[in-house]
DNA repair protein RadC
Amino acid sequence: MGAKPPFDFDADAPEPADERGFFADQPARRTAASGERRFAPKPALKDADEAHYHGHRDRLRSRYRDNGDTALADYELLELLLFRLIPRRDTKPIAKALLDRFGTLSGVLGAPPALLQEVKGIGEAVALDLKLVSTIAHRMLKSELRGKKVLSSWSQVIEYCHAAMASETREQFRILFLDKRNALIADEVQQTGTIDHTPVYPREVVKRALELSATAVILVHNHPSGDPTPSRADIDMTKTIIDTAKPLGVSVHDHIIIGRDGHASLRGLRLI
């Protein structure tokens, strides 16, 4: 047998299952008997350190309980959420790092898990929990639209589409299918493309509308570049869908383009 390696892991040292435990590199220590260096588990926080961040958490929760979200900055709201996801760590630096990276709360919650994990302190479990919050928020917005007359709830339509698509890193082509009262029947992502292109097939759009007995549709897609200005290809594609759908009794109310900081309506711009 060969010589024992100079570094070995302490067999008795528990390892954290994920990033909810301690994240810092574990310091090496020497055993008294052999002088070998072994990695020890991170020591418990000192009482003063524990009191510091636990006291901060209590104060933040009290402010939220007494005054609601208006009393808190965006990073503090994110901290409140991270308290539950990372129970044994000061989460303020992580919350600020997330906002620095993704710009807004919407950007944080809409970011892909792989990108979230590039922020120090965010591992797979926390990234998936953040995406769960995002999914719940989208479902809430969608439930507010279902059954309503969409054209009279236009601000909610824009809010929902922005929440669902603004932070996507690839183009998505989404369709809102409406009944004869212009109430929402279904909302479906028909195609997902690249960073600057999504293939759209007008016949498939109309076919799906007929399958759902929809009499009107609203087309929606996002521009990952952030600029919602419609391109010539966007305009031409929309006109092709209109020409294909009209003889079959399906109206195209609008085509909305979503960017990170706004949206564009082809109907509002009088491009269709």
